[in-house]
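User: Before I run my own analysis I want an independent prediction to cross-check against. Here's the chain; please return only the structure tokens and, at the end, one sentence I can use as a sanity check.
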Amino acid sequence: MTTPKTPVADTGTATPVSDNPAAADFAAAYPVRPVPAPGPVDTAPIATTPAALEDLDGLWRAVVHETRTRGNDIHLPISLAFAERLCRAHPEADAELVRVATLLHDTGWAHVDESRIISEGFTGDWRKATIRYEHEKQGCDVARRVLPGLGYSTDFIERVCAIIDGHDTRPVAHSLEDALMRDADRLWRFDQAGIALASSWFKMDPATYTDRLATEIVPELITQAAHDMATADLNRSTALLKTAVIR
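Assistant: Structure tokens:
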């Protein structure tokens, strides 16, 4: 699918970028949406390019507890693999920042009331749900706890936290790195594993859930690379799962 490119001012975000200096700077630097990719865009199945082997194993080991909530042991590795692909499509981005922020962004779910995650965090105006703000804050606490011992600088850790804090509740991205993490956070849903897990959360059959991906999630993607990856995965997944028939 070729997504029509429109000026960022036409995106209709809930908070005007003019009211947010960081978002305004990002919009000025990348005035076309979806943001075009200067590098190669890989749309093959994500299983063919897992995240860099062993490179972040120390960090993974530090947050094993946090991966055991809300399917993070599925969500986070697949999202990280997509984040690395997006960074190859955007070599101008700080790939280390994107990768670490993506790995850690949802670790805060392990430190909130798990019974409230679906009931409060996925209903109504979910961006304003208290549980969403709580998990972002807790994710920053995880980052500040585990990253110093792994040799990351205070400045880098605060840049990671600036992405984690608001990745769900803030309607606009503040930087390219923030945008790539947000896109990676959505792209995992288009893989068959993501569809299987997330559709069960919402008690939807795969056909209903993939319809939602096409109508609600694809339009949220910020980069053209993410649009292309999502479309390729959605086409593969709907064909595999026979959603045109089993509905």
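Sanity check: The chain has twelve helices and two strands.
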